[in-house]
Amino acid sequence: MKGDAGGTSIFTVYEAASQEGWVFLMYRAIDSFPRWRSYFYFITLIFFLAWLVKNVFIAVIIETFAEIRVQFQQMWGSRSSTTSTATTQMFHEDAAGGWQLVAVDVNKPQGRAPACLQKMMRSSVFHMFILSMVAVDVIVAASNYYKGENFKRQYDEFYLAEDSVRCFFPLKVAFTVLFDLEALLKIWCLGFTGYISSSLHKFELLLVIGTTLHIYPDLYHSQFTYFQVLRVVRLIKISPALEDFVYKIFGPGKKLGSLVVFTASLLIVMSAISLQMFCFVEELDRFTTFPRAFMSMFQILTQEGWVDVMDQTLNAVGHMWAPVVAIYFILYHLFATLILLSLFVAVILDNLELDEDLKKLKQLKQSEANADTKEKLPLRLRIFEKFPNRPQMVKISKLPSDFTVPKIRESFMKQFIDRQQQDTSCLLRRLPSASSSSCDHSKRSAIEENKYIDQKLRKSVFSIRARNLLEKETAINKILRACTRQRMLSGSFEGQPAKERSILSVQHHIRQERRSLRHGSNSQRISRGKSLETLTQDHSNTVRYRNAQREDSEIKMIQEKKEQAEMKRKVQEEELRENHPYFDKPLFIVGREHRFRNFCRVVVRARFNASKTDPVTGAVKNTKYHQLYDLLGLVTYLDWVMIIVTICSCISMMFESPFRRVMHAPTLQIAEYVFVIFMSIELNLKIMADGLFFTPTAVIRDFGGVMDIFIYLVSLIFLCWMPQNVPAKSGAQLLMVLRCLRPLRIFKLVPQMRKVVRELFSGFKEIFLVSILLLTLMLVFASFGVQLFAGKLAKCNDPHIISREDCHGIFRINVSVSKNLNLKLRPGEKKPGFWVPRVWANPRNFNFDNVGNAMLALFEVLSLKGWVEVRDVIIHRVGPIHGIYIHVFVFLGCMIGLTLFVGVVIANFNENKGTALLTVDQRRWEDLKSRLKIAQPLHLPPRPDNDGFRAKMYDITQHPFFKRTIAVLVLAQSVLLSVKWDAADPVTVPLATMSVVFTFIFVLEVTMKIIAMSPSGFWQSRRNRYDLLVTSLGVIWVILHFALLNAYTYMMGACVIVFRFFSICGKHVTLKMLLLTVVVSMYKSFFIIVGMFLLLLCYAFAGVVLFGTVKYGENINRHANFSSAGKAITVLFRIVTGEDWNKIMHDCMVQPPFCTPDNSTYWKTDCGNYAGALMYFCSFYVIIAYIMLNLLVAIIVENFSLFYSTEEDQLLSYNDLRHFQIIWNMVDDKREGVIPTFRVKFLLRLLRGRLEVDLDKDKLLFKHMCYEMERLHNGGDVTFHDVLSMLSYRSVDIRKSLQLEELLAREQLEYTIEEEVAKQTIRMWLKKCLKRIRAKQQQSCSIIHSLRESQQQELSRFLNPPSIETTQPSEDMNAINQDNSAQPETSSQQQLLSPTLSDRGGYRQDSADAGKPQRKFGQWRLPSAPKPISHSVSSVNLRFGGRSTMKSVVCKMNPMSDAASCGSEVKKWWTRQLTVESDESGEDLLDI
């Protein structure tokens, strides 16, 4: 095995990763090393390099091609079909009586045929007749075969299989004449110009000319046979779905045709370069001529035997140039297989892609179709509708009445017996008398007694209250929308410095504008005084959002239709349950509410549930081991028991073999009995709980239930029968093969496995269409191959005999034990050998004597296995010119056929995931949500506050130069493994010593990080944990190395270096992206891999039964055989990679006289099974290699799109996420992953960049975001993903990015938040208005009281004049003016933000203000001395800023006297709040 040097090892690993020849390397390793080590190394190598990393290239090409396609869209044209300007569309009645819109060319020239012939030519009868004749012609061509050795092959000796008398050649002539007449008729009816204007007619005319020349005897066995067999392509017109699929793939031929031309040009250029490089090399005949060089480079492109081409070239050029030649071939192979083939997949996926508008239309249609399907009950339940209604009747007795009481329906009586008060309690919650959340028993009983009167009264009250509430909400919403519109369109932000808005602000204003336009607020009133340009812009915006209104109505209509469908379905089910006594009764015996059935339901549906909910908020708490708890709660307890029993039974079947059979091994029969008993109990419980077939939740309600019953019956029959002798190809052997389907029970028991099956078979239609296309391609080439190669590939087994007449007798074959074994022979002694008879026969694995064998050979060639042998045989025995045949088929099958499978499987996977019909914006939104789920808070502790030793260590370890140095050291240590570490080699000791030095450096790195971050902070990061683990292993290795110093310690040191190398992937953005793609793909493809293993296990069990005793052949040997289930699994894994699977199949087809038959038991014969091997290997290869492995490609492509996106395509870039992580760490100082709700406002204030919320412009958005967190989490703690999800919703245009259901839910939530915030703002403002009004009342009363006192003082002074009178009116006025100047203005005190639920500061401030004897707005301070009345009145006017009079002050003493003026004041205030920048201070409203 190659592995002595680093370069040779890399070269060998690349060869194995290409899945070419890797199995022979593994077999050599098995002979040299322990078996488990070889299996583990090579299987993991194939899985990671060939299946995961290699498919990342496909993902890269697909994503890159999608970007380039947008740039070159104009060059390639539109994806949709366009109708020319010369055509018009009209309705046409089809054959089914329906109407369809078809394109009619009004300028098409009409032919000179009569109208009756033209009508006949356009009729569907004529069309179907021609297609039926084409089908008959294809059947005739497929019936052509070579008669055998005793007949001379001539062109007229081919015949139909069903009638050996009828000659073949006259039929060909008849069909050719018929199709010639068809073409002439169409030309006569349409005219020649109108005929050739259609591409289909051009193709038909080409076939007519070619087939007419083909029936000429001298050209019958020539290349004109292609035209004869190409008639099968016309059968595509039979199926409209197939025709549409073919047009979708090959219709826009510019891209696919350009790629084919590019591939051919690449082959020609590389063949010419290789010819010039290696034509002078002696003993190398692969590049002597251009055709040979072309075939060699094409062979490398297909990966079949490319290692042989490279090895022969390396051996010929010598050791000096071998590395350069190896790099040349590897680069060409890398480009051809990973990039060029991926381009074909990208083109096919792009052709299958729909337009953006068509995607939205299909989303609506799909939702509507889902609503229609939910309305109907299954057929097994609708069968009850065929029977007459027989409702369950009961007789009421013990009633004091003189009249006879008839029987009444039991369901009707139960309404009075088991009455529920849910509706009444919900109604009472809306009334003042029942505002509490629960009603006591006495109230409920009173309501029951006065049911009708109470409901009628309360209904009327409720309707009045609801109407008033609705009017108020509508008025507030109108004010809100009008003011929002005015705020956006007015120049309120003029004069401020120009600043780029954040994406949150932009999306918020877009939504506000859309809502104001959609709801049609008071636009006329707002638009007064505007310019004509502004009005034109408003009109254009209104027209722009008219389509949005239509979309809203369609979405709501579909949602209502879904709800109605579910209600109708429930009503239908309830009607059946009421009118048919046997409905929903298991086995028509057990009652619906029987105790035994309820017991069975409890047993069947019991499952583990460890989710804890908060009693206050109702939110689900995350436990420490929630992932383990989710796994335990994945299925019910009963299903867990059956999963364990099934796994144990499969393990027991692993020990079965042809030499240790279950019929003769009592220990193996124990597991069989246990499985059957447990499955009997399970099915009985499920049938008693849910019914067998005619119940809503029956056991047999889908394919999974049918499979369960089938597996149970097969196991039960086999256990009861237990045949002692099982003949080959008998019913008992078939029963044993069906018993091998037992592992498929896991698919039914695990929900995720059912999802895998659904993804596998849901796209069966498209996979079936691709299979038909490939079968059509194979049939064309098979028919042509039979015409050209039938009977010509046979040869005598004696290489010295050329003619068939001389191939008789016997000849000697020498036996070569080994190429390197030189036997010393005595004079006259011959080499060892034996005599064999001469036989004139075809090649062992293929022939073209009939269409069946030819299609089998072409199917093997289609898998790119064995096609080189077919090519060489055809060239050697027929002629070099016929090598074109196999090259054309391989190119079409490889480049187009196989990539079609990849593209269709990926497209179906995306459709099942719901991403196929997503627009670009919707797909970006889904990718963003997936990225946010993966995102986590930064596990990086903050820098120490002081500037001490820890702070310096922190700065050093976080410096980019330090990180790059560590990465370079990791790479330097990895280079040490380029030389093999052998204990006997003296070079190993210095290499190990250098590795020890590197290990101590990494220990120093970990120590510095622990000091800088503290142990707890260091442990937060997963990367730090991995570094600590690898470093600890390195320290352990150092100790063991100096203690033992043997081969095992060297091996451990190499493993530690490999583990250390993986840590470098997280130190670079691109490497981290690719690593995340692979890791996430492995996680998401876990169940697909398990499903693939279960299928492989079923085939392994069946292979042991069918081919366990087959004799060794070309590829069936001691390493690869079916003698046990373990070896069968390794052989099937080899077949999954395509490594000579066809040769293993032919070894299993061996028949007498090449084997020893035995009709008594199958384990005594060494013969194979021809039909069984054909179905077994072909079905396994198609299911696994063509479908299951392509599902892995689809998953990798999906996950790669999550991490690969440019800054322009990202809704939230990596810089935005990084900035949010940093801000989160600043707020979440305890690193708990959660923060209280009131801290969200501080986090939002700290955000900058694209996530910034400008409090001067978007205070309303800030309030909405804060209230959203409070509403969704009930004032509790919020997590990292909660806040990030809220920001992501606020940063996108939900009308473009969200799907229908999610869009409805989100808009409803935002509308509710908007209304609640508006209500809170108005509530707080009204509260403060009332406080001010009360203060003004107190002030007015104090004024009147002071006036009265002054009058009394004046009167008393007038009556009793004082001896000394001192007044200082000027000083009092100065004091009043000073008080006025010191009082702040009201407009400077207001803020736009209302209090949130989590902010208690406003309420505390209000209560504190109420308790303090401080002066408020409008409060009067009486003068220290009496003054005249005029002074007091003037001071009143001063207090109100000159805007009010004494009359207005007195009027405001009673605030409830004028409700209309209060309402107008609310409206004016709310308009001012949302349109004008306020100058008030922050004392009136809550400070955020």
Detailed description of the structure:
The chain is an all-alpha fold and 1488 residues long. The protein is 63% helix and 3% strand. The protein is built from 59 helices and twelve strands. The strands form six sheets. Strands 1-2 form a two-stranded antiparallel sheet. Helix 37 crosses helix 48 and helix 41 (988-1019) packs antiparallel against helix 42. The longest helix has 60 residues, at 1300-1359. The two termini are 73 Å apart.
Q: What does the largest sheet look like?
A: 2 strands, antiparallel
Q: How many helical stretches?
A: 59
Cross-sheet strand order for the largest sheet: 1-2
Round the Cα radius of gyration to an integer and report it: 43 Å
* Beta-strand residue fraction: under 5%
Structural class: mainly alpha
Give the uncertain stretches in residue-range form: 74-101, 104-109, 150-166, 412-465, 486-499, 520-537, 1362-1460, 1473-1488
Shape: globular
Secondary structure: number of strands: 12
Mean pLDDT, to the nearest integer, reads 75
Separation of the first and last Cα atoms:
73 Å
Helix content: 55-70%
Quick synopsis:
The chain has 1488 residues and is mainly alpha-helical. The protein is built from 59 helices and 12 strands.
How do the strands and helices of this protein lay out in sequence?
Elements: H1 6-17, H2 22-32, H3 35-71, H4 73-76, E1 87-93, E2 99-105, H5 115-122, H6 124-142, H7 168-190, H8 192-196, H9 199-214, H10 225-229, H11 240-250, H12 253-278, H13 290-302, H14 306-317, H15 322-352, H16 356-375, H17 379-382, E3 393-394, E4 408-409, H18 410-417, H19 422-429, H20 441-449, H21 451-489, H22 503-518, H23 523-526, H24 532-544, H25 546-579, H26 595-605, E5 612-613, E6 620-621, H27 626-632, H28 637-654, H29 666-690, H30 703-721, H31 731-739, H32 745-749, H33 751-761, H34 764-789, E7 795-796, E8 810-814, E9 833-837, E10 840-841, H35 851-862, H36 867-877, H37 883-913, H38 920-934, H39 949-957, H40 960-975, H41 988-1019, H42 1022-1043, H43 1047-1062, H44 1069-1084, H45 1086-1107, H46 1125-1136, H47 1141-1147, H48 1170-1203, H49 1214-1227, E11 1234-1236, H50 1240-1246, H51 1259-1273, E12 1277-1279, H52 1280-1290, H53 1294-1297, H54 1300-1359, H55 1369-1382, H56 1401-1411, H57 1429-1439, H58 1446-1451, H59 1459-1475
Antiparallel strand pairs: 1-2, 3-4, 5-6, 7-10, 8-9, 11-12
Helix pairs in contact: 2-3, 3-15, 3-48, 6-7, 7-9, 12-13, 12-15, 14-15, 15-37, 16-25, 21-22, 21-59, 26-29, 28-29, 29-30, 30-31, 31-45, 33-45, 34-35, 34-37, 36-37, 37-48, 38-52, 39-41, 40-41, 40-43, 41-42, 42-43, 44-48, 45-46, 45-48, 47-48, 51-54, 55-57
